[in-house]
Every structure is written in structure tokens, then in C-alpha cells.
Write a structure and sequence with these properties.
By secondary structure, the chain is an alpha+beta fold. The chain is about 20% helix and about 45% strand. The termini are far apart.
């Protein structure tokens, strides 16, 4: 059995997944369905809100033996566009890629909606340094904190700020 990428119509990933699961109960030769969803957080009204976000919109990964009968069974599902591959031949997705995606979404800490790079300019949106501007020195996503260099009395001071309390500065 190999992994293949199945393209769906926009916003049909959940419906197609449910339909494939139903077909699996009917005996179609599919081992596993994988529609990667990661948890991210964002700041709304001063509160940290967790959200679910699809890693690959409009795509589902299916582990199966590719035959004409499985293709026709899947193609008959409403919302299925087709397999990804050259000239109608589905391309096999390496097991290693699937394992990397599974590892990416299984990390315990939710990821922030915005990723910060060292040296990027940010604005602090809450706390003691509200409305201060600074530069990212380092980010620790596992602790949900960043070290930011801010200017206090004409001296750069490094402070540790929680990620939801900073945003990228508008240049």
C-alpha cells in the first residue's frame, strides 16, 4: 500500500473524509486517511484563542492500493476532484513525508498564528511595555515566549514577552 494525494473541492475535506470512511466500512481497500490539522493560537480581544487550521487546504492523503475500482469508488464521492500526479497517474507520496507531517501536527505546544524571526521588528500589545516597539532577539515556541530588545532611557533592554502579546510592527 502507498500514500496518494487526493484533491477535494474547497471546504469539502471533512465531507470527503467522512464519505471515504463510510466506503472503508463497505470494504474498499483503503488502509488510512490523513487530513493534517494543526492547532494554532491567536489573540482576540486580549485573550488567547486556539484554532484548528488545515495544513494543506483542499487535500487529503490516502493510503491504499491504487486500482481502477478504488479510483472509481473515490471519484464517485461528491467533492473529489482527483488524484495529484502527472497525466492522470497519481503520484506516490513517500512514507517519510507523511511521517514528517504527522510529527509536525503532533507537537504538544500549539503554534502561534504568526511566526517571528530573529531581528524582526515587533510591537508589544499588552502588559507593562504596551505600545513599545522592539526587535526580536530569540523565540522559544515551546515556552510561548520571546526575548525582545526594547529602548528604555536610550538603552536597549532585553525583556521576555509572551508571544500573544506581540505583533509584527508596521514599517
Amino acid at each position: 500500500m502507498s500514500w496518494y494525494t487526493l484533491q477535494t473541492s474547497p471546504n469539502y475535506e471533512a465531507k470527503v473524509t467522512a464519505a471515504i470512511e463510510k466506503k472503508m466500512l463497505e470494504g474498499i481497500a483503503i488502509r488510512e486517511i490523513f487530513a493534517p490539522i494543526e492547532t494554532i493560537f491567536e489573540l482576540k480581544n486580549g485573550k488567547k484563542v486556539e484554532k484548528k487550521k488545515r495544513l494543506y487546504t483542499n487535500y487529503i492523503f490516502v493510503e491504499m492500493d491504487y486500482t481502477d475500482s478504488t479510483w472509481h469508488a473515490l471519484k464517485g464521492i461528491r467533492g473529489v476532484v482527483g488524484f495529484i500526479g502527472p497525466k492522470g497517474k497519481p503520484a506516490i507520496v513517500p512514507d517519510k513525508k507523511i511521517e514528517e507531517m504527522k510529527a509536525q501536527i503532533s507537537s504538544e505546544a500549539p503554534k502561534p498564528k504568526v511566526m517571528f524571526e530573529d531581528g524582526s521588528k515587533v510591537r508589544i500589545t499588552s502588559g507593562s511595555f504596551n505600545d513599545f516597539y522592539g526587535v526580536i532577539k530569540s523565540v522559544d515556541y515551546s515556552k510561548n515566549k520571546a526575548k525582545v530588545g526594547i529602548n528604555i532611557f536610550n538603552r536597549e533592554t532585553e525583556v521576555e514577552i509572551e508571544l500573544p502579546a506581540i505583533e509584527k510592527a508596521q514599517d
